[in-house]
Amino acid sequence: MRFSLLLAGLLLAGCGWNGPVGRTHEQAGRPTVVSLNPCVDAVLVEVADPRQVLALSHWSGDPASSSLPQELARRYAVTGGTVEEVLALGPDLVLASSFLDPATRDALDRLGVRVELFGIAGTLAESKAQVRRIAALIGSPAAGERLVGRMRLAVADAAPPAGAQPVDTVLWQPGGIVPGRGTLVAELLERTGFANGAAARGYRQADYLPLEAVVADPPELLLVAGHDPGQVHPVLDALPGMTRTKLDPALLYCGGPTVVRAAQRLAALRRTMEAQR
């Protein structure tokens, strides 16, 4: 089946074909969409008419990598992102990562499939801009503004009281790495009353944090989002003055509606730390 689809695509390209395989389902100016980007997935299901979304990325279909609640993700088809799969769906628009394989991008371009690329949102402002861009591309700018409003309100509600002392916090991500400055999760930590303890200790974005470093200089709060041996070591329970708790890794990497859930979770953690103080 895959070979037949690929062969059909190549033959169509050779004949000067300039449209996607299959029928266009564009209705009232709203295009049908295939997403190959897990962070776009999370925004798309919030702002699009479900009938527009032909497939999400395969990451959203995997609980280990999805930023979507699985009961929501299961409502949509997923695709591995191959040219054959995309052509079989016949979308008006493909939304993908800026890291999309150049060969895939070239093939889709040659076959007349519109592709829009999205990078990683490193700030809250960039995440809001991406929401607005996605919503505009699919013909739902008002839905985009509603989501931006929810993000703004969630972050405002999660802000610490005036004059509150930030909680010295190390976020230990999957793989034992930490976030540096200039990342969305670092900004959310700051806005919700936490100090980025990894950056304060000289660690940069995606630096590896060994267990020994945590033991030698424990933070007030250790947020563990991974399952490496060091991250679950019993010695962590014996460190005086340190609170250790888990953080869902699904809250770490994407913006859009993930900002809302992350802000709410961080605000709850800060209130817990304030009560302990």
Explain what this protein looks like in three dimensions.
The N and C termini lie far apart (62 Å). The chain has eleven helices and nine strands. It has a five-stranded parallel sheet with strand order 3-2-1-4-5, with helices on both faces. The chain has two domains: 2-141, Nitrogenase molybdenum iron protein domain (Rossmann fold), CATH 3.40.50; 165-276, Rossmann fold (3-Layer(aba) Sandwich), CATH 3.40.50. 40% of the residues lie in helices and 13% in strands. The chain is α/β, with parallel strands linked by helices. Strand 2, helix 3 (70-73) and strand 3 (78-79) form a beta-alpha-beta unit.
- Widest β-sheet, arrangement of strands: 3-2-1-4-5
| N-C termini distance | 62 Å
> How would you sum up the global shape?
elongated
CATH topology of the largest domain: Rossmann fold
CATH class of the largest domain: Alpha Beta
Q: Please summarize the sheet with the most strands.
A: 5 strands, parallel
Uncertain parts: 1-26
The tally of domains stands at: 2
Name of the CATH architecture of the largest domain: 3-Layer(aba) Sandwich
H and E order = HEHEHEHEHEHHEHEHHEEH
Helix/sheet category? alpha/beta
The CATH superfamily of the largest domain is identified as Nitrogenase molybdenum iron protein domain
Strand content: 5-15%
Q: What's the helix count? A: 11
Average pLDDT confidence is 90
Q: Helical residue percent? A: 40-55%
Radius of gyration: 21 Å
- Number of E strands: 9
